[in-house]
Prior knowledge:
The complex is a heterodimer.
Chain A: E1 8-16, E2 21-30, E3 35-39, H1 46-53, E4 61-66, E5 69-70, H2 76-84, E6 86-89, H3 101-106, H4 115-123, H5 127-139, H6 155-168, E7 173-176, H7 185-202, E8 205-209, H8 213-219, E9 222-227, E10 230-236, H9 242-249
Parallel strand pairs in A: 3-8, 3-9, 6-7, 7-8
Antiparallel strand pairs in A: 1-2, 1-4, 4-5, 9-10
Chain B: H1 11-16, H2 23-40, H3 51-65, H4 78-118, H5 141-159, H6 162-173, H7 178-201, H8 205-213, H9 218-252, H10 260-269, H11 273-304
Amino acid sequence: MSTHGCSFDLRSATLSFADRVALQAVSVSIQAGERVALVGPSGAGKTSLLRLLGAAVAPTQGALLLDGRDLAQLTTQQLRTERARLGFVHQDYALVPNMRALQNVLMGRLGTQSLVAAVRSVFWPSAEEESAVHALLQRVGIGDRLYQRVDTLSGGERQRVAIARALYQTPGALLCDEPVASVDPARARDVLALLRDLSTERGLTLVASLHDLQLAQQYFDRLIGLRHGVVVLDGPVGSISAQALTDLYRMEAGEALA
Amino acid sequence: MSPLPHAQLSLHELKRRRPRERLVQITLLLLVLLTCYAWTCGDIHLDDLDLARRTENLERFVQEDLAPYSLRDQEHSWTDVAAWAWTIAVTRGFEGALQTLAMATVAITLSAMVAFLLLWCAARTSATARPYGDGRGRETFAWRVVRLSTTALFVYLRAIPEYIWAFLLVAMLGPSAWPLILALAIHNSGILGRLGAETVENLPPRPLTALRTLGATRTHIALFAATPGFLSRFLLYVFYRYETCVREATVLGMLGIASLGYWIEDVRTKRYYDEMVLLVAMGALLVLCVDLLSAWVRRRLRQAS
């Protein structure tokens, strides 16, 4: 179904806002089909790094190369096309609350559709489109929720809709911000197994931020540790020592309240 | 990360630095100053009310002028009064009321459409080179011009009262229904446009940003995410203004346009106060009916939003 996984090459990227520096000269290279977990304490810059990789923000300095192409050189139209290949699952799912699951998933294709095509598709979906969405929702385990309004679904179901929307983009990569932050341990394993299987089935590059080191080591191939906006560790899961992981989360004086 | 700056401060110092809300104090002070101004500088005198003489007038008005003219100085029953009222209602009242309602409806529909089309150019979140929280691209001067000029247009349209618009338009277009409709439509476009733009600005940003980052255009997002989110609230404002439009359409008839107000003004100049009061009551009834309808619709909309 999918074409091929996306590869990312972040070159010495700094992301700063008016009042703070979120990422400091981060260089990370991710191969197509890799499964990467971003770990590190709260405020370390995990979400910022995901937003950079998802082309949601542009680095203040440095560059992001997606499949070898520098995003800064693209026209608005080309940027749209590239963004359409990046499936982003937000921490709060960011669905349109008073639309049906069907419509929310159909909106996954907006990046490649003209206005007329999009209106036709979202408001009057064809039988093929409906069955494609139904198949995706079945794949993520909530096929029966197709015609439900999203604001009547539970948090876990919304997350599945968000994953289905990202898949409907036929993306080259899935970027997930804290996919298991608000679910219990059993469901966390369920979601991570789903993401891992999807990435294998479709050859997707998978990048997810999470807090649980055990889960990160179990479901991902590679860990990238962030602290204060700097990459402090990066390597295959097996190669990272327990001491390095403890250091990653070590608290400093006064930090508990920050 | 450095320790919090307030961690080592004494209680006294912490209290000195506490955040304080000054707005309420300033508003109260302003209110007192304005009252003093009105008292001392305004040409407003209690004597002018001359209550004794006015009361006399009022008594005569209620006791003599209000009695139906055709039935004065003779014995009459409630059936006679009802027949008299019915004649007036049929000859002028109903037609005037329906005209009023029709003109107000056309006016609010026009202004809702104009406002809906223009408000996207005024909302800070959509009229920008980085729409709906897009983190890429640079703010451009052109978008700023679009945004500020649309906002200024809305302010201008609503700053001029309906009555003045109608006055100007009657002079330009002559006494048809259009000066009244356009006057109401122009004024309310400004109001609905501003309120609609604010509603779009206040939408939860993340669903909109999410669509932007998967490649959706500004129009896609406006149509598929912003409109579903803000429509019920926008309609709430539309129905609220509809009430006002019906009221204003009555008043504006006094400029010579065939709404209920025209007939009220007509009988007032003839000093048929009995008929005037009846027509005013019909106007009030009409407004009350629309109020009830609008309140019902808005309650349903609030439940939906």
